[in-house]
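Sat 14:20. Reprocessing the chain from the morning session after the first attempt stalled halfway. Input below, unchanged.
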Amino acid sequence: MAAFYPYLFFGGNCREAFARYEEIFGGELFIMTMGEVPDQEDVPEEQKDLVIHAAIKFDNGALLMASDDPMNDSFGPVQGMQVTYSTEDLADANRVFDALSEGGNVMQPLIETFFSPGFGMVTDKFGTPWMIVTESPEQQG
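Finished this time. Tokens:
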């Protein structure tokens, strides 16, 4: 079975972003910093706290992964993609959308559409663009 898992890059705030994503989505959070990598003695002091790998593992096997990018000094919102969160529960879609909207930028408020009881798009305060989709009964069957 093939699977696709988003891997996000951050400009030094990966730990903060993933702590927030764990609050919103649940799952099991793992974080390793560059300073925690075994047998790494040449990590510059200013990079030791950067996240080399973060992952949230969910009960259904899904993964959301990320790291800080020590090679990039300027970070803005991610462009050209969106992470999609799909749920069967409209109340859950509203909860997630509202949480991701805090300090972020709403591009499409969560509304009923011809393909979903609740669909919205938001870029969160960390610069990650999200699509929130509530599956319609037709999509579930």
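The longest strand covers residues 51-57.
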